[in-house]
Amino acid sequence: MQFVSILPLAMGIFIASQTAINSRLTSHNHLPLVTSTISFATGSLFLGILTLCSGQGRGIRLGVILDTPWWSWLGGLTAAFALTCNILLFKHLGSVETTLYPVIGQIIMSLVIDQFGWFGSLQQRMTWHKGLGLVFLIAGLLIFINLVNFHRTVQEADAKLSPQLGWQLLGIFAGVALAIQNAVNARLGQAFHSPLHAAFVSFAVSFILLLFFNLIRGTGIICAIRQTLARQSGCEWWIWLGGLLGSSYVGLSSVLVLILGTGQVVILALFGQLVFSALIQQFGWFNSRVIKMSRSQGIGTVIMFVGILLIKF
């Protein structure tokens, strides 16, 4: 049981690594959409194998399609958007911020979905500890981006914020998309009576949408893969593993939630993701850009994590 309890930490490490790996793959082909397509292709293949091996993959009955709300099929679209955003964000913001801003957007949107019971989710009203957690989350964010610093003028704070504001907002919107994905995939999982089957369908839809979009744009995916193979050094075989890591997260989550509960899995996974993102950025792992974490960023991250704990529990 102790071994099972640390698996959510590995899930967080998988997601942090996936973003860095996909960013490195994009540095070779210069096509974020192609990288997303490759990631969802390998992820769909892995989840498809898992679904078949588990005995849960029995196709999609027409009755399920007709009886399921149209928005239940949006998980693939939102997942494709969020993953592509993360690839773009990693280059401009670094590993830690690429993790933090989507997490903030995801948590805020999750609270809104719970408050109003959107997407067929169980309605859960805002409580005092959730409100307090939200305050901690916002305070930690302000400290992280160094806006809360009484030794600086308003003009200096604006100058600090402005260059990255667009990317930071995009990260928050990516998190909003992830929250919607979680909600609609949960509804799809109920329709299929299998969260794993729903995750496979979501990944497959993401792959098909991205493939279609690349074909419309005239992007040569096969040509881009060949160019990447020609440019990469032999020791960078791991740049193709992003989809496998992302789908492993989904597969483990569908199993561990039943054993440990959603709250424990989410918190431990977020903790693993935040810590490993900081290590990637600090030491430049996966051939990424080295960005040393400042004291204010460290303090802000801790305060935000306390906020996450209050919200989730």
TrEMBL record:
It holds the Pfam family DMT_YdcZ. Keywords: Membrane, Transmembrane, Transmembrane helix. GO terms for cellular component: plasma membrane. The chain crosses the membrane at residues 6-23, 30-50, 70-89, 101-120, 132-153, 165-184, 196-216, 237-259, 265-286. PANTHER family: INNER MEMBRANE PROTEIN YDCZ. This is DMT family transporter. It comes from Candidatus Limosilactobacillus merdipullorum.
